[in-house]
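Let's do one together. I've listed all components of the complex below, 456 residues spread over two lines.
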Amino acid sequence: MDIAVLGTGSVGRTLAGKLSELGHVVVVGTRDPEATLARGESDAMGNPPYSVWQADHPAVRLAPFAEAAVSGELVVNATGGGGSLDALAQAGAENLAGKVLLDVSNPLDFSQGFPPSLFVKDTDSLAEQIQRAVPAARVVKSLNTVNCKLMVDPANVPGDHVVFVCGDDEQAKEQARGLLGELGWPAERVIDLGDIAGARAVEHYILLWIRLWRATGGPQFNITVATP
Amino acid sequence: MDIAVLGTGSVGRTLAGKLSELGHVVVVGTRDPEATLARGESDAMGNPPYSVWQADHPAVRLAPFAEAAVSGELVVNATGGGGSLDALAQAGAENLAGKVLLDVSNPLDFSQGFPPSLFVKDTDSLAEQIQRAVPAARVVKSLNTVNCKLMVDPANVPGDHVVFVCGDDEQAKEQARGLLGELGWPAERVIDLGDIAGARAVEHYILLWIRLWRATGGPQFNITVATP
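Okay, and this is what the predicted structure of the assembly comes out as:
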């Protein structure tokens, strides 16, 4: 499938690399490809320059947001939450119309340092903001509850831990579940939380995720749901 | 131990009944004991009148909030979140000073119907509001992430599912963990999330809990944390 991955940070790279490895034709979207490739320093998170990653992934093309969006049958929003609406505006609503828009971002507000707070409150979510901004896209929220290494390699952590999907378009959720299956998340480990307002639940879960990161000593963990 | 349980709803009754069964001397606190006992109808949640429950639990005494608080070496806040600060004001800061105040409530706002939203946002929590209102109490947040039947009988759901504690007083957390152990939560299934601001995480988790209730078909479920 032709897939656009918006965002050149660790989440975007990890997803783009894995989807390319799985045989998809992946275009990564960024604001300004030349500027992205010109950066010679590691970023604030310690990720090496994009050009270094690019050299290891020659099959993955880098393009401006709009060109990436045009190329994708399915579009992944892997930009930082604070930049997502702007990135999607640059991608262009007309280039996203009718497409599954898999939103894996988190609405993190680092303006007061670490730990971040959220820039949405409990009666809204970034995924809903995205759906409102691009009404013709079929937004599915998923994968934002796990570290990006776990997104593409759930076996990094043993057990039947789970991820979630939510969205207003049932068929879009099915398509997203198909892609999740390719990434290693079988259907029984993908919990459907209902409509796109379910994104409030998984985005606010990040507050617990951050505390669990501290408590467990690292970002490689996930939750399972135990039932009788 | 002498334990005060504030609140006469299903959470208060369930905890009071179990703690009494475990041998503790339990006093349940309410605004007006006569009014509580005079009610002849089931409440909005379908709980039978308190007098019916009282008849089955003769060892549990009902008293005004302040009298209950005075009696307890440890105090449990099991009031509805919306009424917690008022109940604790009635209990009296002087009667709570120096005591472990185990807060199991949730900051649910039902003013717009179901599902509820939260009346605290991500940079605050009800537990922190309680700690600020009663600075001399040693507030520990716990158990709010599970249904009350599961609070007192974790074996209702198989597996090593977990609960959380957080609070600013390490010794108070240890005492709370002791009580959790008596309820069936061994130390390795009680995750310490750090200071009282960790309550933001577990209170906002309720948004996910509500969606999981729908997804799993009932309130008897819980999460486990899978690590490598």
